[in-house]
TrEMBL record:
<dbReference type="Pfam" id="PF13855">
    <property type="entry name" value="LRR_8"/>
</dbReference>
<feature type="domain" description="Gram-positive cocci surface proteins LPxTG">
    <location>
        <begin position="559"/>
        <end position="590"/>
    </location>
</feature>
<dbReference type="InterPro" id="IPR009459">
    <property type="entry name" value="MucBP_dom"/>
</dbReference>
<keyword id="KW-0433">Leucine-rich repeat</keyword>
<keyword id="KW-0134">Cell wall</keyword>
<feature type="domain" description="MucBP">
    <location>
        <begin position="399"/>
        <end position="461"/>
    </location>
</feature>
<dbReference type="InterPro" id="IPR019931">
    <property type="entry name" value="LPXTG_anchor"/>
</dbReference>
<feature type="domain" description="MucBP">
    <location>
        <begin position="330"/>
        <end position="390"/>
    </location>
</feature>
<dbReference type="Pfam" id="PF06458">
    <property type="entry name" value="MucBP"/>
</dbReference>
<dbReference type="GO" id="GO:0005737">
    <property type="term" value="C:cytoplasm"/>
</dbReference>
<keyword id="KW-0732">Signal</keyword>
<keyword id="KW-0964">Secreted</keyword>
<keyword id="KW-0677">Repeat</keyword>
<feature type="domain" description="MucBP">
    <location>
        <begin position="469"/>
        <end position="531"/>
    </location>
</feature>
<feature type="region of interest" description="Disordered">
    <location>
        <begin position="543"/>
        <end position="570"/>
    </location>
</feature>
<dbReference type="InterPro" id="IPR001611">
    <property type="entry name" value="Leu-rich_rpt"/>
</dbReference>
<keyword id="KW-0572">Peptidoglycan-anchor</keyword>
Length: 596
């Protein structure tokens, strides 16, 4: 039994679920079948669907595409958007979409080229619908009761066909000035001399200048328009704060008003787009907007877009100028070019931001050479120093002589002399002298000219560079070496001097031209040439050579060791020959004496 009940329960449950699914399927099919073509075409946009039904006097199920295309006017209310297929209404000349929450106008509205009247009254538009520039025959554009903040100047491009513009109750604070200087598509309106654009501007907060002839007594109330004087009154800018307290010398032209303290006489909130400025109308204690007098006064706050004469867009505000504070003292100094104070210091006192003027002093023996950039200025919170610089009047000084000498005081280069006036600076420089190096730089190489003469000595020492040797030879006129050569050594630039040697049996024949000179980096040879004397040396005697050169002591050279004096073809000893000749001569003399 229990098994039977369970089975029965499962069957009933399954049947119930199946029946429910069947019901849902058929209800969806029916719903799809009940949606009209118009509802699908207009995306289910009920405000537009209802407007079509009213205009055609047909139910939505009866409306066709041909019906939409044939319509020339459509009035829609309470819409929040445009249907995608708004282009189906291609023959519309009048389109009204009002009392809704529309925030933007689709670009494809530009395909409705026959529209002459577009009414978007009382929606949520915050920007001007730029698509209207593509409607070539638009005559009337109504945008009242939205939240549009700005009208583009490009609207003048529609002047050939646009005659009426409704802008009442938006958030406008200005209208492009170009609107009032050209012809529009409206009828002639004396005494303007041109066809004006019929504009409804009431309920905005317009402060920009609009010509008086453009204003009428119907549609411009509630703004702040200078030239409006008709039935609908203008609003008035008011100030709701305490007197404005400012420091002395405040320049209101550099300040911006606190807009939170501003309002309108109508108690309407000021639009965010407003900008205001301070303006000195000359009737208060200010001087060109600057608070130069202590105590109470007034300043005017006006719209930056309004004229100075517009009474509605400005308000006079009380101010209080604080007592001027004292500025920091200014110290005036008088100094020489060396920084020495040469006259008593002066002190200037005054009010903060007040002007000050300083003057130089006449100081005996000094001449003013530099006037400071801050000789004149204003007192500040911080102390200031004004310094006048003077140069001492010139007094001729004794000269400074600069010498360049060696350690023995010998002048190595021309001296130099500095002249000028007492306290003039001088700076001497060492010189580069070939063959010498600086040993001592004087302590007074630089200094000042004084009333006493001064001497600066640069001391140098010779740079010693070993030279190539000088060789001195002593030879006969036949080229025979008569004595040992002498080798002289020294440093480049040192002088040397040689002299002939005394050689027994010989006398000097030729003195060399380079017997004296200076050592150099090249070897030098000096040759003394001798010729033989007529007297003869005795056998066994010695040949004496006396050295006269300062760098070599006299040297004796033995005759036995010395080479024989040359004689052509003679190979016998000289002494034997001479002795024979002597004996022969003696015999001849004795024979002659005896014969007489």
């Amino acid at each position: 039994m229990r098994h039977f009940l369970r089975k029965t329960f499962l069957i009933l449950t399954s049947f119930t679920i199946f029946a429910t699914l069947i019901s849902l399927i058929f209800s969806n099919v029916y719903a799809e079948q009940s949606t009209s073509w118009l509802e699908q075409e207009l995306d289910g946009n009920e405000p537009f669907i209802n407007a079509v039904e009213r205009r055609l006097n047909k139910s939505r199920e009866e409306v066709t595409l041909q019906d939409l295309e044939s319509m020339t006017a459509l009035d829609v209310e309470n819409a929040s958007s445009f249907p995608e297929k708004i282009t189906d209404f291609k023959n519309l000349t009048t389109l009204t979409v009002q009392m809704g929450t529309i925030t933007e106008v689709p670009d494809n509205l530009a395909e409705l080229k026959k529209i002459t009247t577009l009414n978007l009254y009382k929606n949520n538009l915050t920007e001007f619908p730029m698509v209207v520039f593509q409607l070539p025959v638009l005559d009337s554009l109504q945008l009242g009761s939205n939240a549009i903040k700005e009208i583009p100047p490009e609207l003048t491009s529609m002047s050939s066909h646009l005659s009426s513009l409704g802008l009442q109750n938006n958030q406008l604070i200005s209208i492009p000035a170009e609107f009032f200087t050209m012809d529009w598509a409206s009828g002639y309106w004396p005494p303007l001399g041109l066809r004006p654009l019929i504009v409804d501007l009431g309920g905005n907060q317009i402060t920009s200048d609009i010509p008086a002839d453009y204003l009428d007594n119907y549609n411009n109330g509630g703004n702040m328009l200078e030239h409006y004087s008709y039935k609908q009154g203008q609003d008035q800018l008011v100030y709701n704060g305490e007197p404005i307290t400012v420091p002395f010398n405040t320049d209101f032209k550099q300040l911006s008003p606190d807009e939170s303290k501003l309002g309108l006489a109508s108690n309407k909130a000021l639009f965010d787009a407003h900008e205001f400025e301070y303006y000195d109308d000359g009737s208060s204690t200010l001087e060109n907007g600057v608070a130069t007098k202590e105590g109470p006064g007034f300043i005017t706050i006006k719209s930056t877009l309004s004229t100075k004469s517009n009474p509605f867009a400005k308000v006079r505000v009380p101010i209080v100028v604080e007592a001027p504070p004292k500025g920091a003292d200014i110290t005036v100094e008088y100094k020489s070019t060396t920084g020495e104070t040469i006259a008593p210091i002066d002190t200037l006192e005054g009010l903060l931001d007040a002007n000050y003027t300083s003057t130089p002093k006449t100081i005996t023996g000094y001449t003013l050479t530099e006037t400071p950039a801050n000789a004149n200025g204003t007192f500040l919170k911080e102390p200031q120093t004004v310094t006048y610089i003077y140069s001492k009047d010139p007094v001729p000084a004794e000269p400074v002589t600069v010498n360049y000498v060696d350690d023995k005081g010998k002048e190595l280069a021309p001296s130099e002399t500095f002249t000028g006036f007492i306290d003039d600076p001088y700076v001497s420089l060492e010189k580069t002298i070939d063959g010498y190096s600086l040993v001592s730089t004087p302590t007074n190489a630089s200094g000042k000219l004084t009333a006493n003469a001064q001497t600066v000595n640069y001391i140098y020492q010779k740079i010693l560079i070993p030279a190539e040797p000088v060789t001195v030879n002593y030879i006969s006129d036949t080229g025979e070496k008569l004595a040992d050569q002498t080798l002289l050594k020294g440093n480049i630039g040192d002088p040397f001097s040689t002299s002939p040697e005394t050689i027994t049996g010989y006398k000097l024949k030729t003195t060399p031209t380079n017997a004296k000179g200076t050592f150099s980096d090249k070897t030098q040879t000096i040759e003394y040439v001798y010729e033989k004397k007529k007297n003869l040396l005795k056998k066994g005697s010695t040949l004496s050579v006396k050295r006269n050169n300062s760098t070599s002591a006299p040297t004796e050279i033995s005759a036995a060791n010395k080479p024989k004096l040359p004689k052509t073809g003679d190979t016998k000893p000289l002494d034997s020959t001479l002795a024979g000749l002597f004996l022969l001569a003696s015999t001849i003399i004795l024979w002659r004496k005896n014969s007489h």
